[in-house]
Amino acid sequence: MTEGGTEVGVHDGDERPTTDDVESGTGFEGAAMDAGSETFHDGTALGLPSPSTSDSETGDRATFEPAELRTVLEAFPVTLVREIREFPAGSRQAPKVRVVASEGEFLLKRRVARTELVARAVFNHRLQLHLEAGGVPVARLVGTVRGNRSMLLMGDRVYELFEWVTGRRMVKAAPEVRHAARVLGRIHVEAMGLPIEDAPTFAGYHAAESVDTAFDRAERAIVAADPEVDRPTLRETLADLRRRRDEGVAAVEAAGWTIAPVQPIHGDWHPGNVLFTPERPTQRHPGVVRAVIDFDSSRVEPRLVDVANGLLHFAMRSDPDRSPAEWPPSLSGDRIRAFLAGWIESVGTLLPHEPAMLAPLMIEGLVAESIVPIARSGTFARVPGGPFLAMVRRKAAWIERNATTLRSLLERAADAGH
Fold this sequence. Notes:
Elements: E1 6-8, E2 22-23, E3 45-47, H1 66-74, E4 83-86, E5 96-101, E6 104-112, H2 115-133, E7 151-154, E8 157-163, H3 174-191, H4 209-225, H5 231-255, E9 263-265, E10 274-276, E11 289-292, E12 299-301, H6 304-314, H7 333-347, H8 354-377, E13 379-380, E14 383-384, H9 385-401, H10 403-417
Parallel strand pairs: 3-4
Antiparallel strand pairs: 1-2, 1-7, 4-5, 5-6, 6-8, 7-8, 9-12, 10-11, 13-14
């Protein structure tokens, strides 16, 4: 038992944490602070919004209580904290703060501690630590003071502390896409050595029941958010997307999903989860990946799930001056080739089922990532759901038309890699 809460994971001395043990406690007493103030009594600067513990994706972003921060940070080897600032990124359910202390800078993250989510968090940490030991650049976990555990469980919350990584987002350049895909391949190769017998069950987007439920609810949610939407056009769009998604599911199954080898994967491979060296890239000196972050969705599935999802995001053609609903339907050919070439450089060879599975998995991922949030709020990142789904429909149609080309590009990348 400890005074700082339940701690999960061990690292001895300079070794990195694993996830072998659990301890419990109640937290220290007498945290000196002014409720709602901008500083603790010890002078630590606070940059926090009004505290909230909301777990709703549709509500306000969940935040930390000042006293909560004092208790949690006491459990980690972080002293002389000078500043704590909100870092409003990622899921609204998982608040984060940037912590500046004498030991350096850190990112503190909180997750809901439901039983199944704790099991997933333990698996996430095992994968991260395994990858780090194999030389894959990941954000380093910080162990607790007592026992060097990799996470703290206190009440109904899980807390994780990471060393802060200074980096930038990817630029839309083929060399950086290729390097990111090469790192994804390294993740896949290294992750094959992680035992998965006790991995928790966590379904991804393939044949997900949540997508079927979202289709059932989407029209109502969109109309509630935008009463002026053209309902016949919306129904046609939803029906077309549902058909393409269902055909994608069937094609993935026919390609061999049930017999495909499974292994730990990242589960959410997109540019926002890859940090590059902060220096401004040039044609001669493109950036390299400094750290991969956010393993919250890591799970055990066929590795091509990461490739299909990543290809959508890394090859996405977008325009910052236009609404996402107006983005072009096509993907960047240069970045598609760069992504596939980089991944093959690391994994070496293709599995027999993978070429035929690529395009339908991409369609599944595209539809799932769009319809599920829209079914909740009727919008996608403040874009009305109707126009956004019309763009998704055009993009899904483009992928379907180019399925043979995508398959050939993957096969050619594999041939060139030999």
